[in-house]
Amino acid sequence: MNLLLEWVNGSEAAFGDRFPKYDPSGVVRYGLVNLVITVVGIGLTILGVTIGAKRAAKRDVVNVG
Questions:
Q1: What's 18's DSSP letter?
Q2: pTM of the predicted model, to two decimals?
Q3: Distance between CA 24 and CA 31 in Å, rounded?
Q4: Are 14 and 7 in contact (CB under 8 A)?
Q5: Distance between CA atoms of 28 and 36, rounded to whole angstroms?
Q6: Is residue 50's pLDDT more than 90?
Q7: Distance, CA of 33 to CA of 25 (rounded, Å)
Q8: Which of 11, 25, 27, 45 is in Cβ range 3.0-4.6 Å of 6 for a Cys bridge?
Q9: What gap in Å lies between CA 34 and CA 31, rounded to an integer?
């Protein structure tokens, strides 16, 4: 709460003197890592659903004869 009140009163020292500089390529790398993690997660989810559906289909088969 104190940090918020100091900011409202015009203080800019809450996070140090200046905002740290960043390298734009770092942002691109961060985005690529997040994209890879997301794609792998979606792929594993689809794989799990597919394997589960195949196993369920095998259990539902009735042999007649």
A1: S
A2: 0.56
A3: 11
A4: yes
A5: 12
A6: yes
A7: 12
A8: 11
A9: 5
